[in-house]
Specification:
The complex is a heterodimer of chains A (about 110) and B (about 110). Chain A contains no helices and 12 strands. Chain A has strands at about 5, 10-15, 20, 25, 35-40, 45-50, 60, 65-70, 75-80, 90-95, 100, 105-110. In chain A, a hairpin with a 4-residue loop joins strand 8 (about 65-70) and strand 9. Chain B has strands at about 5, 10-15, 20-25, 30-40, 45-50, 55-60, 65-70, 75-80, 85-95, 105, 110. In chain B, strands 2, 4, 5, 6, 9, 10 and 11 form a 7-stranded mixed β-sheet that branches. In chain B, strands 1-3-8-7 form a 4-stranded antiparallel β-sheet, with no helix packed on it. Chain B is globular and about 40 Å long. The chains are: A mainly beta (about 110), B mainly beta (about 110). The interface of A and B includes residues 95 and 102 of A.
């Protein structure tokens, strides 16, 4: 079964600075999809960014970008110009058929 | 546009009582539907998924069951709740396999006492 590992239970960043959240996954497949979800204190799951494994170009959504290293099975999320509203749990997810989630990283943004 | 509704938002139930959580999707047809559970401070565990009416796949053998009586309705049930069933339950849908991300409901916080 595919596994998703987020090795950073907690991260902290100063407002306006940049932070990178790490994610690795294990799969024997070549065609799959990777996602980052944000879960604020409301606990609503919000899709942040998506990456197709067949695309070499890293996905970008405004201040959010990924560093996708397929050979290393690594999928990190970079948040630039961090804002107070970015404080949340961030979950990395892998999807081939159904979606598997990592344990999450709690991001704190300091004013 | 598509929307997903999940209720109730909060539920406190005694041990041994039955459970029924409901999830409905609007604005689409034949969605893939999912039930996840999230323990406090933890990741999401897939419980059940369905690709069509009456088609339920279970990931974790446990005290819970799921049903899909209508195309856009997904129900999570238990005949007798255990303390270990406490948690945050999330329903999600996607248009199909692979490329699509999931859209999640707002969740149900279940406390078994």
């Amino acid at each position: 079964a595919q596994t998703v590992t987020q090795s950073q239970p907690e991260m902290s960043v100063q407002e306006a600075e940049t932070v990178t959240l790490s994610c690795t996954y294990d799969t024997s497949e070549s065609d799959y999809y990777l996602f980052w979800y944000k879960q604020p204190p409301s606990r609503q799951m919000i899709l942040v960014i998506r990456q197709e494994a067949y695309k070499q170009q890293n996905a970008t959504e405004n201040r959010f970008s990924v560093n996708f290293q397929k050979a290393a099975k690594s999928f990190s999320l970079k948040i630039s110009d961090s804002q107070l509203g970015d404080a949340a749990m961030y979950f990395c997810a892998y999807r081939e058929n159904d979606m598997r989630f990592g344990a999450g990283t709690r991001l704190t943004v300091k004013p | 546009s598509q929307t997903i509704h999940q209720w109730p938002a909060t539920l406190v139930q005694p041990v041994g009582s039955p459970l029924s959580l409901e999830c409905t999707v609007e604005g689409t047809s034949n969605p893939n539907l999912y039930w996840y559970r999230q323990a406090a401070g933890r990741g999401l565990q897939l419980l059940f998924y369905s690709v069509g009416i009456g088609q339920i796949s279970s990931e974790v053998p446990q005290n819970l069951s799921a049903s899909r009586p209508q195309d856009r309705q997904f129900i999570l049930s238990s005949k007798k709740l255990l303390l270990s069933d406490s948690g945050f339950y999330l329903c999600a849908w996607s248009p199909g396999q692979g490329a699509y991300g999931y859209t999640f409901g707002s969740g149900t916080r279940l406390t078994v006492v």
